[in-house]
Amino acid sequence: MELRDYLRILHRNWILLLSLTVLGGAGAYGLSLLQTPSYEATTQLYVSVRTDTSGVSELAQGTNFARQAVASFVDVVDSAVVLDRVIDDLNLNLTPQALAKSINASTPVNSVVISITTTNSDPELAAAIANSVGSNFADVVVNQLAKPEGDSPSLVRIETIEPALVPTSPSTPRIPLNVGLGILVGLAAGLGIAVLRTVLDTRIHSLHDIQSATDKPVLGGIAFDPEAKKRPLIVHADPRNPRAESFRSLRTNLQFVDVDGDSRMFVISSAGPAEGKSTTAANLAIALAETGARVALVDGDLRLPRVAEYMGLEGSVGLTDVLIGRAELVDVLQQWGTGRLFVLPSGQTPPNPSEMLGSQAMQRTLEALSKAFDYVIIDAPPLLLVTDAAVVSRFASGVILIAASGSTKRPNFAAAVDRLDAIGSRLFGVIVTMLPAKGPDSTGYGSYAYASAGNNKELSRDEPRSRRARRERGAEDE
After folding, report:
1. Same domain assignment for residues 178 and 281
2. What is the CATH number of the domain that holds 58?
3. Both 306 and 394 in a single domain?
4. What number of CA atoms fall less than 13 Å from residue 275's CA on the CB side?
5. Are the CB atoms for 386 and 275 separated by under 8 Å?
6. Interval 289-335: pLDDT, tens
7. N or C: which end of the chain has fewer CB within 10 A?
8. Does this model's pTM top 0.70?
9. How far is CA 301 from CA 193, 225, 316, 345, 371, in A?
């Protein structure tokens, strides 16, 4: 994975990452508040050995003996003989075994200093226990364990060099540390879930995903527009809109597509439904007509036609009437606006769409359109649902495949490409629709500042038989 792939993961899952990070920190803070505060108090004792002389060798021997003895003395600190005295001194309602759990004795390597630390929920009691353990431990060692026979004084001396003080702040819970760890745990969990979601997510999200899935060129990307249902023909309704510029960029790329012969007839299809193929076909046709080219937009989706509705035209008579010989092509072609765009609606829904689209009549109709127009754009049904698009693609220059960001799945996209390869249809490229306007998956147009003059104007009077109500329904369903 490249750096931009990780950036995409962070961008797509930033809400999850932020939520789990905050939840981890808040959870750690809440648990810390529920814990009973615990205080630690520490006293330090110095162990030495008496010598009768002050010679250097005798002092060294005494120090070495003390170091060796300290390792054994540490085990005496929490012994019953010491803790029984502490319990009696402080009148504690504890057993030596229970008290021993709150006491820790340690000494550094090659040191004659013993540190005794006690833990208790009462800071004053923690200091009292530590000091009592220290004094009683010293008395037990000096006067019992290390006392020679007779009345001779003990050679071992144990002195308190640092008494235990009453702690002013609890040792646990360490709220800042706990919150920090909670944040790290939450962030790590969020990253793990984000990566797992990305691995398990088979949907196409960006132009980069298409480039990774196929060697076919990406002709363009169209940003998602929440107002698309109200303005499906964005190239006409708001020419300076960034989304309209995306269609013009697509138009430019399509003009440089290398086709066999003079015919420039393109089938617009997708792997599945609701991926934006119909709005793409309509806007692309308008954008091509803006250049002065003669363009024919054919609604080849005989099962769920949408072109006439989007264009504001009467669609009850059209392609099916031509195919069954009930009407002439010139009689059902409808000019859109005052430009050079003509629309061939689907007509009535037939009982056998695939057979009609694969008929010789369909081939003759498309040949006639190819001779009369510079571009022929055919809106066809999804490839994986029915065979209609594959059938009609045999008569065209090739296919342009639509993939919707966040909707089209990679296996379905690959299956659509394989179906075209199986029948020998040429795939000119891919258009990714519904891309986010911002972020690493965006088209890039969202950052441009176009001064759109006259947004949401009334439709042109030259648009034939337009129906705003028709154009406001289901713009991105196909």
Report:
1. no
2. 3.30.70.1130
3. yes
4. 32
5. no
6. 999 999 999 999 999 999 999 999 999 999 999 999 999 999 999 99
7. N
8. no
9. 41, 23, 13, 9, 22
